Amino acid sequence: MPNVCLDDCQIEYDDTGSGLPLIFCHEFAGSMESWDLQKSYFSRRYRVISYNAKGYPPSSIPDDWQEYTYDHQVKVLLELLNHLGIQQAYICGLSMGAYTALQFGINHPNRCLGIISAGVGTGSADPKRFLKESETRASLLEEKGMNGMDSYLAGATRIRFKAKDPLGWEVFSNLFHLHSPKGSANTLRGFQGRRPGIFSLQKELENLNVPLLVIYGDEDDPCIEPSLFIKRNVPRCGLAVLPQTGHACNLEEPASFNYLVAEFLANTESGKWNEMPEDSGDNWAINR
Questions:
Q1: What is the mean pLDDT of the chain?
Q2: Helix 96-107 to helix 70-83 angle, to the nearest 10 degrees?
Q3: Going by CATH, does the domain composed of 3-273 fall within 3.40.50.1820?
């Protein structure tokens, strides 16, 4: 895999296929391998790029958690586009990666062809409590290593994946246990616990004039209300819900996820992913 120095860190990435660029940003519990089912599908028609964020080997693992904040992660993504000579790209992220994609769109809308934000917004309902939980989990990682997060992998938003697809979940779990405890702890402290909640971003979302698809599983409770909030505030946003699905929706329901993303890309490229049309004045069906 190639690597490059971005934001003073070595970042490992993968670049395959040809066509319009489509960049995948992984979640806290994932890595670039979490997108393999999407990479093999979309690289037939797109230039597909995935990368390991700071703290995820073989990318660098800075000692200071302040190097992991969301603005640093957005900077990594921006510098990756610059390094690859990409002026505009589709940005697709899950959870932590979805938040990165959303903030990238807010801060660099001219670099986005469109954004897919899946499983976004955990912790937005009570940021102070989420920070405390993130600090507790970081301490567990430092004390017990990746095994200290086993209960996290078997939590309410993950258990459906394990029940549906034991083999897929085992691959996901094995990859998770290969992560760096220090890198994961610093990610929890710097990114997860201290990012602004979705509900605090209303003005930024209202001004985000980029095609956006939000996807969530209906059993991913922490992400339901934030996803609805984004839909209500971003002018060019569409919302898709996957039934009986938890947090890692791209792994849990890859066929449905790929279909939704492919339709979004096709509609965006044909100019049909637009704002709500002006009211024609014909409200008979609603008001009768």
A1: 94
A2: 70
A3: yes
